[in-house]
Amino acid sequence: MGLYTALGLQKKLRLREASVTVVDPQPHMTYQPFLPEAAAGAIEPRHVVVPLRRTLGKCHVVTARVTKIEHASKMVTVEAVDGHIEQIGYDYLVVALGSTPRLLPIPGLAEHGISFKTIGEAIYLRNHVLSRMDLAASTLDPDLRKRLLTFTVVGGGFAGIEVLAELEDMCRFATRYYDNIEPEDLRWVLVEAAGRILPEVRESLGVWTVEQLEKRGIEVYLSTFAKSFENGVVSLSDGTEFASDTIVWTAGVKANPVLGSSDLPLDERGRLKATAAMQVVDTPGVWTAGDCSAVPDLSRTEQDPNATCAPNAQHAVRQARHLAKNILATLRGGKPTDYYHKNVGSVASLGLHKGVADTYDVKVRGILAWFMHRAYHVSRMPTFNRKVRIQVDWAANGLFRREIVSLGQINDPKAEFHRASQS
Fold this sequence. Notes:
globular, alpha/beta
């Protein structure tokens, strides 16, 4: 969300009024709601990211990882790409570090799990899944084939449901190009610890979504915990066990742990305590937005005085834009205003021409919800450049069908060169 804030400042700051420095470990911003479609080949992965240096031409972009924040001395410590450490001073600080995967102490998770928060992970997962089909088509071992064609997703939130549905859709389409793999040979499993999926939509839509997934042959385990992934064998709390060569972990996120090494006030979940104007509590000059912040949700505080904004794109994009206006107002001697946004609902893609939406208290299912999902998220994608490229990708796939080739060589690009050197 730092990109949206920097864009707002870049557009409105007067000449020599202030300088803006953006620090990020990646040279791009990733629009995460489009990661499932990038993984499934509906969108070119490069079009899901926004290059910082090109987009923020009036800002100073530093490709580095923040390791420490010391507001007492107004200093941020960063580790650059080459490993050297430096400190950057500031007058005003915007903390938009986002979140990281919330890992649980489950045996085998670190070794066999695949997270799904970055474009690199989306590309890797796509190549991995398609390569499992290639291996399964060539092996003579029936047990290995079954393991290769079993795909497990843990987590029934938006990320888990969308990546599961998109990849299942892609693989089912891909089977037409394999002589010895039928759609029925693919096994897709969803594991969710809660008693329902998609908590952001009303329960009846969650139930409908489960029914649609099960009609596609996807196994759904609700109120079920993953106990172990050792040796690639999934063990569930209800006693179910099966071998799976693909384990996707989307079971929650947590605030960036860098905040723990700062002198900024945190809540019990490790997020920055913030006012409704997105200023960090009792910390003048420090602002925050997005997943790492506990910004009061004024639309719900009457019912729950402790309600905070949900960690989703709907709030984060609006917070960042409002934050830029508040910073400008403060710079010019004005007062910041409170952030207020009533959740208008949620939309989710369930694969090509399939979706679910709960917006303005209206339930929408099927192809209309799928169109709503695409329309909403392309409207929130930063820059006109990326909006056009994504729509061109969709149009091309509509005409020529999606590409299903695995480019697994990018995971080890020097393997052939190394093999040649040994011969």
